[in-house]
TrEMBL record, chains A, B:
InterPro entries: Amidase_Cbmase (IPR010158), Bact_exopeptidase_dim_dom (IPR036264), Peptidase_M20 (IPR002933), Peptidase_M20_dimer (IPR011650)
Family: Belongs to the peptidase M20 family.
Binding-site residues for Zn(2+) 2, renumbered to this chain: 95, 130, 383
Protein name: Hydantoinase/carbamoylase family amidase
Gene3D superfamilies listed in its UniProt record: 3.30.70.360, Zn peptidases
GO MF term list: hydrolase activity, acting on carbon-nitrogen (but not peptide) bonds, in linear amidines; metal ion binding
Manner of cofactor binding, per the entry note: Binds 2 Zn(2+) ions per subunit.
Organism: Microvirga makkahensis
Amino acid sequence: MATLSIDAERLLGRLRELGQIGRAGDGRLIRLAGSDADRAGRDAFVAWLREAGLDVAVDRIGNIFGIWRDRVNTDEAPVLLGSHIDTVIDAGIYDGSYGVLSGLEVIETLKAAGFAPARPVAVAAFTNEEGVRYAPDMMGSLVHAGGLSVEEALATIGTDGTILGPELERIGYAGPEEPGFLKPHVYVELHIEQGPVLEREGVSIGAVENLQGISWQRVVIDGAANHAGTTPMSMRRDAGHAAARVVTFLRDRAKNANAPTVATVGCMSFEPNAINVIPSHATFTVDLRDPDEGRLRAEEAALAAYLRHLAGAEDVTISVERLARFEPVTFDRRIVELVEDAARNRGLASRRMTSGAGHDAQMIARIAPSAMIFVPSTGGISHNPREHTPDAALVAGANVLLDVVTRLAAE
Amino acid sequence: MATLSIDAERLLGRLRELGQIGRAGDGRLIRLAGSDADRAGRDAFVAWLREAGLDVAVDRIGNIFGIWRDRVNTDEAPVLLGSHIDTVIDAGIYDGSYGVLSGLEVIETLKAAGFAPARPVAVAAFTNEEGVRYAPDMMGSLVHAGGLSVEEALATIGTDGTILGPELERIGYAGPEEPGFLKPHVYVELHIEQGPVLEREGVSIGAVENLQGISWQRVVIDGAANHAGTTPMSMRRDAGHAAARVVTFLRDRAKNANAPTVATVGCMSFEPNAINVIPSHATFTVDLRDPDEGRLRAEEAALAAYLRHLAGAEDVTISVERLARFEPVTFDRRIVELVEDAARNRGLASRRMTSGAGHDAQMIARIAPSAMIFVPSTGGISHNPREHTPDAALVAGANVLLDVVTRLAAE
């Protein structure tokens, strides 16, 4: 079994084929959860599952499972692989799809080789990981792990005014299974890094040992609109300036800290947004991440204290809304070591790392030992048509997953 | 003549009547240059000019003049009063209209009192002072003063895709006179302050001795979009953060300077403007004003130097587009002193001041001795439905104008 390897052409071919499904008229890849494009992607995936001879199951939140089991192992908890196939707007072809199709590829490879696993091996495509159309993100895996009721999830209203439940029914993926029906023995998710570290260091495999905690907040600052020419600097209540102070505060703090904390202000808007009017309102988002919950809380507290100070110093009113909050996740040490072993046996350099992005694995980690495997992202680019991982690196990652699954499925 | 005063009810009544013309369905006052609402406002003004027995003239850029002259003085250069009657979106009723209607009021008062001026007295409503629909602002007075050709002005494409020339024809205000046909002896513009100084100091009359220079620039910063969770702080090229640095730089510099410089960033936008993506682009405007040209240039140079520094320090590309530039204007000292005298004689407190906003007077000052008179703005608020000046203050300002015109028209 030492030389068993996945079928590179089959995996890469499916990745490209799925990557052509959901192209908009202008060529952009847009496969938002519950959309017609999502249906087309799901249909292709289910067809591949059936071709591979797997049992296909769909649960009420639309998570799709392809299960390889036999009469001997059918009562054992499965080794679960997977990720998601929904995308952001104008996406690349790797994010999510690579993990899902590699899971299927690993199963087909083991099956064709006559491997007799001690427990089922299954691959999942979780609904709405991206959260672009329906919030929160990682919804399907969150529901699977029991962190959100399926009723609440199905009632989610989308950015386009649609409701997720009826949309899943419309596209034929409101399945009969109760979410969580398949309780995994372990969960392993293969994914592109979506960051620059592996490529920069020339390392092929990331053995992901933990995942950053994420804190998303929306901050609204209210000042007073006044004429830009006639209002002395000392009499201004400039909401835009106060917002800029927060941006530089967060940047300086994160950059000067001897810690992996990252802080980002991605959205910003001013009102009335006129060249000669002092902004009365500024609205912006704060994305704070840290793999340590204590540090993440300290960063949130530091921001809150700064906002209090700023409100007084600038005579503005500041309100904060929490948009999302996930505690850091520590992955299963034993699986992480299996990933390192597998890489070493294949002659691939690996390093332990933290996932900066959120992934379905962080949800499934609530109910089963879990870990992730990363492969390099060229230029660290993701959520973008320029998202890219070289073919050889994709194949290497899938082979490491194959070796890890071979060990786990024999338990 | 010492006790001659304007007809307060007539002036205030017309202000309120004009303020009801151009109301949108939702009640907002929107009288943009060249619009149907502008036509309705112009029609009302012209009707009042004719009622008052004035000669009405309209030039090719749509400037309207009401001229009071007789056979004796018809060859003399007129004392010109005026302002504009176009408005911003969701405007108050005072900005511009107060000066135009007060000019008419002064003429009617002098005429009714049997005053025989040594030269004509005229009132102008200049086209498109606000510049909301067609750039640049103060267009009609700029064309009148020869600073912009009428052909170029008429070819201006609006924010709604319309062209000013055809729009003026459509509303019936593409007149026959060549712009500049009426060369004034002097020009006096009465206006609300649009700032907080007079109210704060309890002063009734601003004798406006100069007008700030204005520098408008648009700055575009290009960085790189990357994942907010996976990109270390040290590897970021964050255009949003760089933009925030400029905002705080300008604020700190203007606030700490022992000078009347004001600096405002009124417009700001990030791209892609997503909570978990580092901004790749930031676009913002810079409004710099100072009554001293040397200082204004120094501020522009300081900004340019800071942007060069920032481009290197943050590994971003920065481009700057000049949107507008007006040198500071010094008004005519003799007229300013006449304003102070008139206020003193009426028992009104006055102070010399700088106009922070741009006004038609700055254009007419290129061709004739000019000055402005300010009255207090409650709360300093302008370009807003809450724009307000108490009736008594409006009447006081118009009476000061009356006294100044009485002196100037006797010359």
